[in-house]
Amino acid sequence: MDFFSSTTCFFTFLCHAINALQQRGQLLTQWNCAKPENQNIQIRIFVLSLLRLSCSGLVHTDPFSRNFQFFFSEFCVITGLRGRVKRGGKHDQGLTFFVELKASIFKELPFLRGGGIILKIIILLGGTVMAQSSSDEDTDISESEISEYEDKSYEELKSGSQNLKTSDETFTCPYCPKKRKRDYLYKELLQHASGVGQSSSQKRKARDKANHLALVKYLENDLMNVDVPSNNSKPEDESDSSVNSNDQFVWPWIGIVVNIPTRRTEDGRSVGESGSRLRDEYRIRGFNPVRVNPLWNFRGHSGTALVEFNKNWPGLDNAMAFERAYELDHHGKKDWFANCGLKSGLYAWVARANDYNMNNIYGEYLRKMGDVKTISELMEEEARRQDKLVSNLNNIIQVKNNHIKEIKVRYDETTDKMNLAMMEKDKLSQAYNEEIQKMWSSARDHCQKIFTDHEKLKMQLESQKNELELRKIELEKREAHNESERKKLAEEIEENATKNSSLQMATLEQKKSDENVMKLAEDQKRQKEQLHAKIIQLQKQLDMKQELELEIQQLKGSLSVLKHMEDDEDVEILKKVDNLQKDLRDKEQSLQDIDALNQTLIIKERESNDELQEARQALVDGVKELPSHGNVRLKRMGELDSRPFLEAMKKRYNEEDAEERASELCSLWEEYLKDPDWHPFKVIMDDNGKEKEIIRNDDEKLNGLKKELGEGAYNAVVEALSEINEHNPSGRYLTSVLWNYKQGRRATLKEGVQFLLNHWKVLKRKRGMM
After folding, report:
1. Which of 215, 325, 481, 741 is deepest in the core (most CB within 10 A)?
2. Could you list the residue range(s) of the whole structural domain that residue 577 is in?
3. What is the pTM of this model?
4. Residue 272 in 3-state DSSP?
5. Which residues fall within 8 angstroms of residue 288, CB to CB, at 6 or more apart?
6. The Cα angle at residue 641 between residues 637 and 644, in degrees rounded to 5
7. What range(s) does the XS domain occupy (predicted)?
């Protein structure tokens, strides 16, 4: 329905447009200050304001549509509503927004309920969104949305919607269809994508940066690198056909970067981007520079920097790739010197002879930092260095081989001598052990004989004393009967007194015998100390002998070397040979004297050892007949303790069955201990460098016992096994030794004799009390 004429509608539209422009600033200010969660409310407020401005009696007219479409389209562009609806892809949120918008319109402007304005708004908003979707290339994204758009482009590349390959080795950039260069190698495409994606130029759109960053991610993660050279050490004329071997480059390889943005500080000096930041950026792009040096003059940062690459051939590859990347981006040397107006962004190239001779700041620095050389000159210089290196290495190898041969000969000689010395040492140790055993056996027998005689005499004295006591009692009874008997009793008392004096004399003799036993024990102790002193002396003399033998071998080796070096005209070498021969004869004579002394000491040591062995055995046999109490008593080495087995069986069976089972298990493990084929030991080196045998942790029998019966039974078997291995490893039968239970060690001979004397004193004290 038309309420106004066309002219009236036109002027009315202008009035409403002027009114809307006055309120637009306030609405946009509210939008910019609103929080993200309140922006939908701002959209509704803005739409309602537009409706109020647009439909003052123009609900069904064309001016309303044009007026509302003009302002609403402007609002969608400014606020990014189209992009939010399109990029979000969240249809539920969009639908919720339309429903809320419709409810707000009906509430604020109820007169619109009967018209088709809501349908027009929805169509208009949808049309703007579709228009935005069809014109993505004309509208850019914000910097904060680059990461989100990069992920989306990366997913498109992974899905195969973009075709990169043009052949087996060449690729194309799907986001640069208008570039003249369409075919790239893998590395070139990666450098192109990195350069565009990380470009700081204001001309680059954020959408292009996001697309190229996604392309870099796709090339590095999902596409096989088919263009990487197989050998980084190739010469430049093989790795890059675009480089002529006669081209003159500045060496070490240096790149020139110009047009670096700078700004002036308050003091008038120029400052610009740091070299480390440029270096990190180039490393990310794959150019691998060593360092980037910004050039400074009296005014500050000059806007120019020199990029240093490695001095090797891979460094030249990186430098040429660096130059090609800027050439492909139309920011190379030719583009920099071309007269094409205002230039933006960085320009870069590889320094050559003409740059070296330039009369500017980077030419001056290039002359300080390097020289101008061709590729062929560098190759010839490298070949000369390699030839010289090979020659030097060959000479060193020859000298080392001769030295190794000489060392090998000396090593073989020393090894033979050491083997002989070790064999002789083993023989001496075996002989020493045999002599010690004989000494212990002899000492044991001697002590046994002494104690046997002592016991016999003791028994005789006791019997005689008892007889005298009985006679004394009988005489006292007869004394009361008659005088004659009394006289006879007096005579017998006298006789008894005489015999008592004889007994006292016998007691004194026994005391002397005990003192003799003490003296014997002291003599045995002294002999044992002398024996240990002799053993230590023997060990020292054996070490002296080995040192003399080594010195003799060294003298012989030196003598043999000097004999090979001697010359009739060299008098000093002949004198050295004579002196060495004289020293050799003296050392050999000293060695013979030490051998003779060692033999004498070994014979004496064996005799003393035999006596000690006999004394200890006699002591053990004597202690067997005494009651077992006190700190020093006999211990059967290797005897299995049955208590842990009984405790383990009590946990499973009753008292009677547990004792029977424990007895069976003890008998079984005693048979295992007697088995010489079962040897669960391993040899290790202790802290003093001596060999030591310990129980293996991987023995199946012991681990099974530990798992079945527990730690107590396991420790009892390990203790018995260790005692047998220490005292009788070959026979595997139980042996009795004197044991100091207080200190947990084997008792000394002195402790055994002291134990016997203490026991004798106790018995003597008891008899005196009787």
Report:
1. 215
2. 523-625
3. 0.28
4. strand
5. 282, 309, 310, 314, 315, 318
6. 155
7. 247-357
